[in-house]
Design brief:
About 35% of the residues are buried. The longest helix is centred in the N-terminal third of the chain and has 27 residues. The chain is an alpha+beta fold and about 270 residues long. A hairpin with a 4-residue loop joins β3 and β4. Strands 1-2-3-4 form a 4-stranded antiparallel sheet. Strands 5-6 form a two-stranded antiparallel sheet. It is built from 12 helices and 6 strands. The two termini are about 20 Å apart. The protein binds zinc ion. Zinc ion (ZN) binds next to α1.
Length: about 270
């Protein structure tokens, strides 16, 4: 099971109302599936249909890393690559949104792109579309050999039924973690006030989450409940919500991530805990 995890917003609000000096935090968990919404329940019994507005890939990647920690190498390799593919799909969607002047209602565009088999039909097409849009939107070229290596390790394990070696899966997960981290922060734009570089991917994700929620019959009529349904998880391991004051700072961070010697176990240990 791929676990979703956050802090229960209901418990947080209740505790703020009753005693501002003592914040009560409960862990809220659910299962990430193919459905848009996650039914999450807290240890105090609250239940919310949450739309994972940060995307599913942070949770799938966390699952891959934890599986590696537990020695489940097939699970680690398969879900690691699934996280990468989920990010690629989201990136393609967000790129389309940006290049069509960021329409207010993102859902029809999302559905149109999602059902376009020429772009989203299989892994090879997804990589092609992603590589092209990545270059177009970040000005940075994907290193083809590095990327092919990732998908070869995965193909050998998944399709050729090769018994996975811990060292190969470690390499795959580290490469995926680094790529996802860098990709999510590379795509920034200058704010009008010029003070910070703003992340576009989270902006798109928020728009998509809101549109999907409004279209769904799971949306609440209560404003606070809607905010709860769109709560961002507190336990994400990726740096895609960081703010950078200028391009140099952003480039330094990218350089740090790409050159850092790290293994999958250490990344797994660094997943924030509630
Ligand atoms: Zn609660």
């Amino acid at each position: 099971m791929i676990e979703y995890e956050t802090i229960c917003p209901k418990c947080l609000i209740q505790s703020r109302k009753s005693d501002i000096s003592h914040v009560h935090i409960s862990r809220m968990t659910g299962e990430v599936t193919d459905a848009d919404f996650i039914k999450a329940t807290c240890t105090d019994g609250h239940s919310i249909n949450i739309f994972p507005r940060e995307g599913k890939y942070p949770f799938i990647l966390a699952h891959a890393l934890r599986s590696f920690q537990a020695g489940q190498l097939y699970e680690a390799a398969a879900s690691g690559y699934a996280a990468l593919e989920d990010l690629m799909k989201l990136f393609i969607q967000a790129s389309t949104w940006v290049s069509t002047d960021q329409p207010k209602d993102v859902k029809p565009l999302y559905d149109k792109v999602a059902s376009n088999k020429l772009v989203m039909g299989n892994s090879t097409r997804i990589i092609g579309a992603y590589a092209y849009l990545y270059q177009l939107n970040t000005g940075s070229i994907i290193q083809q050999r590095k990327f092919e290596k990732m998908s070869h390790i995965r193909d050998d394990i998944i399709h050729a039924a090769k018994i996975p070696q811990a060292s190969d899966v470690n390499k795959l997960l580290v490469a995926i973690y680094k790529h996802v981290s860098i990709a999510t922060i590379r795509w920034y734009h200058s704010a009008d006030n010029g003070r910070h570089l703003l992340p576009w991917l989270p902006e798109y994700k928020m728009q998509l989450a809101t549109a999907a929620l409004m279209e769904s019959d799971l949306a609440s009529n209560n404003t606070q409940e809607i905010i709860n349904q769109l709560t961002q998880s507190t336990t994400i391991l990726l740096p895609d919500m960081q703010l950078f004051s200028d391009v140099n700072e952003l480039n330094t961070r990218i350089e740090e991530i790409s050159t850092k010697e790290i293994d999958a176990i250490t990344i797994a240990e660094n997943i924030p805990k509630l």
